[in-house]
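Illustration: Molecular chaperone DnaJ.
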Amino acid sequence: MMERLETWKLALERLRSAESADWVETGRLVAEIVRMSSDTMLRQAAEQALPVLRQAVDNDDHSVTLAAQRRIGVVLEVILGLTAPRFGRRNALPKKLSTEERARRTLGLPLAVQLTFEDINQAYRRAAKGMHPDQGGTAQAFIDLAAARDILIHPGAHKDA
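Result:
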């Protein structure tokens, strides 16, 4: 699949940089991408480009030509995104949050800031207004909110889960 993407990328760059656009050839290439691409985003970009490319064939209207060039640019951007080298660990799962980090997220507090007792209580009161069962929240969400506040107020009393 990667070789095919590279081939399409080179062909689109060549067609896009040509002095006079060959919309028939570009349309043929984009139709091939629609038929053969397994990537949903690339297929959608190509499908959206096809009608404009077909309209650009034998059309002297400058706005149609510009629209076709923009659509080719979008398809090319998607291909460039798919062929760009990936750095870091592939398919690595996101880092698991600690109990305190989960509690901070629940209360909407930043992860890397020293919190005071008052900061925690203010965040709890603010979040509790919308989470309370009388205000349209669920009982479980309200219990989770109270547990998050307790974890942040008494951090040593709770072990990481």
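Reading the tokens back as a structure: The chain has a mean pLDDT of 85.
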